[in-house]
Amino acid sequence: MAHAKTSYVCLPCRASYKQPYLGDQERICPRCAAPLIHVGSAFAAPRRRDTAAWRTLSVLLNAGIRFHKSCCGGPGYRPRTPREIRAGMAYARRTGELLARALVRYELP
After folding, report:
1. 35 contact partners, CB below 8 Å, separation of at least 6
2. Which of 7, 15, 48, 62 is most buried, with most CB under 10 Å away?
3. What pLDDT digit, counting tens, does each position of 47-81 carry?
């Protein structure tokens, strides 16, 4: 039986790769040789030319947010625009909540 594949991302190249998950083994980007980031199996990559979406994705990944499936389907809410990221960051500063937790809230004030 084949292993399920999961997504890995290279932020400098704006590329996504589906590869079998082999634990914590480091993956290298075939384009630039930078380490790939394991983002999870529920990840859908934005188009390469969509710079705003890749900036948003970069903030999410650097905050530690990933796209793993939960028991009920997908990964849950994830911000998709820079505006939603700014709102989440402002909320985190205002309330003192952790940035990763503030970014995945369903409703931002």
Report:
1. 26, 27, 28, 29
2. 7
3. 999 999 999 999 999 999 898 876 666 667 788 88
From the list 81, 66, 76, 71, the residue with the least C-alpha distance to 105 is 76
CA distance 105 to 84: 10
Q: Contact at 8 Å (CB) between 41 and 69?
A: yes
Predicted pLDDT at 4: 81
Kindly list the distances between the CA atom of residue 5 and the CA atoms of 8, 13, 66, 72, 73, in Å, as whole numbers in the listed order: 10, 21, 15, 19, 16
What per-residue confidence (pLDDT) applies to 53?
A: 93
Is pLDDT at 109 greater than 60 in this prediction?
A: no
43/57 Cα distance (integer angstroms): 11
Contact 77, 104 (CB under 8 A): yes
Which residues, in sequence order, are bridge partners of residue 19?
Answer: 6
